[in-house]
Amino acid sequence: MSKLFFNPLTTLIISLLVIVFWLSLYQTTQEIRSSDKDTQAIRDHNADLTLEIQSLETKISSAKNPNTREKVLRDEFLMQKEGEYILKLPDIELIEIEAEEEKHLSAWEEWQGLLF
């Protein structure tokens, strides 16, 4: 029996089994790490979707409000109640005039601005 343990072939087989076992453990740990990353990505996506659902539910509840419905009817469809007159004014773009500030630079600073 002792000759069996000291046989080079037995040592080789045991070494190969240890290497295969170690490689299997390494591969398993890599798969676990990958699945952890995927799980975290899914949780993040789930949190984003939950926030989006809450936002949409808020919009739905505000859309069901009678005041909101009336505002849409009046603003977009120009509907009116009896005895009211509605004037739609064209959208005017406001142009902001920015005051140009003159910077007084020394001659040396003007030359630096031109060269560099």
Structure description:
70% of the residues lie in helices and 0% in strands. It has four helices and no strands. It is elongated and about 110 Å long.
Structure, briefly:
With 116 residues, this protein is mainly alpha-helical. It has helices at 2-5, 8-63, 66-77, 107-115. The protein is 70% helix and 0% strand.
Tally of contiguous helical segments: 4
Supply the helix-strand structural class. mainly alpha
Most strands sheet: none
Termini gap = 89 Å
Morphology call = elongated
Share of residues in strands: under 5%
The radius of gyration computed from the alpha-carbon positions, rounded to a whole number of angstroms, is: 38 Å
Secondary-structure element string? HHHH
Uncertain parts:
none
Average per-residue pLDDT, rounded, comes to: 84
Helix-strand layout with pairing:
Elements: H1 2-5, H2 8-63, H3 66-77, H4 107-115
Labels describing this entry:
single chain, mainly alpha, 70% helix, elongated
